[in-house]
Amino acid sequence: MPVERKDRKMKIGIVGLPNVGKSTMFNAITNAGAECANYPFCTIEPNIGVVAVPDERLDVLTKMYNPQKTTHAIIEFVDIAGLVKGASQGEGLGNKFLSHIREVDSIVEVVRCFDDSNIVHVDGNVNPLRDIETINLELILADIETINKRLEKAKKMLKADKKYQFEIDTLEKVKKVLEEGKSARTLEFSDEELPIIEDTYLLTNKPILYIANVSEDMLNDVDNSEYVKQVKEYADSEKAGVIPLCVKIEEELSSLEGEDKKEMLEALGLEESGLDKVIKASYDLLGLMSFLTAGEPEVRAWTIKKGTKAPVAAGKIHSDIQRGFIRAEIVSFDDLIKCGSINSAKEKGLMRSEGKDYVMQDGDIVLFRFNV
């Protein structure tokens, strides 16, 4: 019997100092995930949740095909242990924090951007830039230790093989930036340097998204928040994204469904919840996209890396389909909706036949032809 591939779920780590809303946001995200009947949120460990990626295209295709089930793409969120200064030297839960960060593919950092005398800040007052720098400094110090170990090894190898000079030069380039208090992600790497950097597994090279946690009364005026402006300015320097949201409201929204949720969103003047934005942005942060399959048995989104070619995408469904790949019959989601049906899309010449070199596009609706 052929064996289906079980691909590792992409992990996103949620980090933040105490009392910034980190765990509340994790709980809200995973409660929101529970709304998806066909892929409910499930707790693998107390701090890990699997969440469906919101995708309005699946809703449209479900109405069109009336399938037996609809399956969303999924990602995994990890509520990472709290951090204190000195984590890189093992202070507090430092070692656990750093080990969990190493295991995730990208980072979502919750930053407090509101004043509230009833919620004590761990450092005495609200200062989002200081909070960001507290966490980043610990990651930078951990990366410097990693780089130093790699440099020591490369310098020993250099005596036997001069090719290690390039590795040493690349590592020294990163070390210089880290020692300036900047993250590795602020650097541009050449095609030759990238394999060295990827093999070093630097914490500060992981993609990062900042969540600016604002108060309810600031939600519709976030552009005028000095705290949010500071976070955005810092994020720009790091090639990172920022999503302002009110974690308290998101927690309330996550407990609602259907019309109740829609009414609350309308009352708040929002088109979608902030958590939906976070989940979508996290998916994009990982360089992921979805191709779709549609029919009466199932409408489904399949997760692939951007730039994936058709046969590899076929292998996401089943290894036999990749092995016996002949062609991919593809219509874009937008074209299908304009035409109203697959048959109409075929009649208008909008169903394409693509070969093994075709690079998949987000929203491609695919039927793979194969022979084994």
Structural class: alpha/beta
Strand line-up across the major sheet: 2-3-5-1-6-7-8
Helix content: 40-55%
What percentage of amino acids are in beta strands? Answer: 15-25%
Tally of DSSP β-strands: 13
H/E topology pattern: EHEEHEEHEHHHEHEHHHEEHHEHHEE
Number of helices, counting only DSSP H or I runs of 4 residues or more: 14
Write a structural description.
42% of the residues lie in helices and 19% in strands. By secondary structure, the chain is of the alpha/beta class. The strands form three sheets. It has a seven-stranded mixed beta sheet, with helices on both faces. A three-stranded mixed beta sheet has the order 4-10-9, with helices on both faces. Helix 4 (128-158) packs antiparallel against helix 5. The longest helix has 31 residues, at 128-158. Mean pLDDT is 86; it is low at 1-6 and 33-44.
Topology, pairings included?
Blueprint: E1 11-15, H1 22-33, E2 42-43, E3 48-52, H2 56-65, E4 69-71, E5 74-79, H3 94-103, E6 106-112, H4 128-158, H5 164-179, H6 194-200, E7 208-213, H7 226-237, E8 241-245, H8 247-254, H9 258-268, H10 274-285, E9 288-293, E10 298-305, H11 310-317, H12 319-323, E11 325-332, H13 333-339, H14 342-347, E12 352-354, E13 364-370
Parallel strand pairs: 1-5, 1-6, 4-10, 6-7, 7-8
Antiparallel strand pairs: 2-3, 3-5, 9-10, 11-12, 11-13
Helix pairs in contact: 1-8, 4-5
